[in-house]
């Protein structure tokens, strides 16, 4: 596995003002938080400020050049990395004591990036592999991103992302769903200057007055009624194997020897609270992604074997229509729409929008939604080869308003290792990979 990897980034937007930023944890530099400098060769390690919300000492915006241009940068080993992009304006990163990097937030209306058109993809490059994905776990940006990974054996993995009109299609579908069921899917659409800027995940609905309280509760009751008499089977795809589940006399869903209480809507949308809180028990932690995904996709009433096939997803109401719509509006149907969107049956078609390989030779990112979805050989490339062989960055900090005011930077989880990387969920995947290599 190389100490560094070439990233080829292509601008297919209709703008000549597109910037990239790289943030993460520098594996080769004792796990220091870092950003890549604007020259694309050197790493910037911010020092700790004495007060909160201080500016960076470096301008870390890497210009992509005019539409159609490709630049090459070389990324060192980085855990919990993010490759950010902005159009027609730069992003503002701030520092809190620590140093803690305050990254752009879509939930804080006072954030300096609140009206900036930006998006990101996530990656970890370590001694074992490159793992990368496009993520809609927090929001869908206006700016489409596609990725592809070329491996030493000649194989190529691709995630096509959205077309240039992807966000508009998603927003139209959210509005249509709101008209059908009266739920506030339409309020997830964030507009600026008369056009849709992004769509928030329903997990964050309360930030824009879109409350889904009580949404999944009727479905949970039906699941409990069904499995008082029927038996479900969950394949942990790990050591515990296939476990059977039924409702016991205490009104608990017992799967194997693990008992789960009824989740509420927030538990299901977030996948990380209530009965879906992970802990020290390996078997329970293997059940949680598969059980949570079955609730999000509304497959527990129509199927008894889980994970079930993708053709069974989102077919019954209530369901997570944000996740359904996001998948429908991707060129290839792939992209993380919730934290455990990588759960799939063995041999099934991956839904999660990830690429990974242990012998990578080139990672391509195409911004703008035009072209071959991450697989083009860099159009009109005036390839600025910006060599870099230095350390790597950490996970994403999405500070809320309260965190910014208190000087805390929220640490957004990163990728996982070992076992079945495609079955552990986005949150777990980034966390494990970061912990393993620091």
From TrEMBL:
Signal peptide: none
Domain GH64: 1-364
Compositionally biased spans, kind Low complexity: 399-411
Stored Pfam families: Glyco_hydro_64
Region entry Disordered, spans: 340-359, 367-427
Domain of life: Eukaryota
Descriptive protein name: GH64 domain-containing protein
């Amino acid at each position: 596995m190389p100490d560094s990897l070439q990233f080829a980034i292509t601008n297919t937007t209709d703008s000549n003002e597109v910037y990239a930023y790289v943030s993460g944890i520098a594996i080769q530099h004792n796990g220091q938080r870092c950003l890549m400098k604007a020259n694309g060769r050197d790493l910037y390690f911010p020092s700790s400020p004495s007060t909160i919300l201080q500016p960076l000492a470096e301008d870390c915006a890497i210009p992509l050049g005019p539409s159609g241009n490709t630049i090459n940068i070389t990324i060192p080993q980085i855990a919990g990395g993010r490759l950010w992009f902005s159009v027609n304006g730069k992003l503002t990163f701030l520092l809190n004591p620590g140093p803690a990097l305050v990254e752009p937030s879509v939930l804080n209306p006072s954030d300096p990036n609140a009206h900036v058109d930006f998006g990101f993809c996530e990656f970890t490059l370590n001694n074992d592999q490159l793992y990368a994905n496009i993520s809609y776990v927090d929001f869908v940006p206006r700016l489409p991103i596609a990725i592809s990974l070329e491996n030493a054996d000649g194989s190529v993995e691709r995630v096509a992302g959205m077309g240039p009109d992807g966000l508009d299609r998603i927003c139209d579908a959210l509005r249509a769903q709101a008209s059908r069921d009266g739920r506030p899917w339409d309020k997830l659409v964030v507009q600026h200057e008369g056009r849709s800027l992004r769509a928030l995940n329903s997990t964050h609905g309360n930030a824009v007055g879109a409350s889904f309280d009580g949404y999944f509760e009727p479905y949970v009751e039906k699941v409990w009624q069904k499995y008082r008499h029927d038996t479900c089977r969950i394949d942990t795809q790990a050591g515990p194997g296939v476990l059977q589940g039924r409702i016991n006399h205490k009104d608990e869903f017992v799967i194997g020897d693990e008992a789960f209480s009824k989740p509420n809507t927030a538990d299901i949308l977030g996948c990380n609270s209530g009965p879906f809180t992970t802990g020290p028990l390996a078997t329970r932690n293997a059940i949680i992604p598969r059980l949570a995904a079955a609730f999000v996709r509304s497959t527990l009433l129509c199927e008894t074997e889980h994970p079930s096939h993708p053709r069974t997803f989102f077919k019954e109401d209530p369901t997570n229509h944000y996740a359904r719509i996001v998948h429908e509006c991707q060129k290839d149907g792939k992209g993380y729409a919730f934290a455990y969107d990588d759960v799939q049956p063995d041999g099934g078609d991956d839904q999660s929008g990830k690429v990974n390989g242990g012998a990578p030779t080139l990672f391509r990112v195409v911004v703008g939604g035009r072209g071959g979805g991450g697989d083009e050989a860099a159009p009109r490339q005036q390839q600025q080869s910006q060599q870099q062989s230095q350390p790597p960055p950490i996970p994403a900090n999405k500070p809320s308003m309260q965190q910014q005011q208190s000087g805390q930077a929220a640490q957004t989880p990163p990728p996982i290792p070992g076992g079945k990387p495609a079955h552990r969920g986005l949150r777990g995947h980034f966390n494990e990979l970061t912990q393993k290599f620091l």
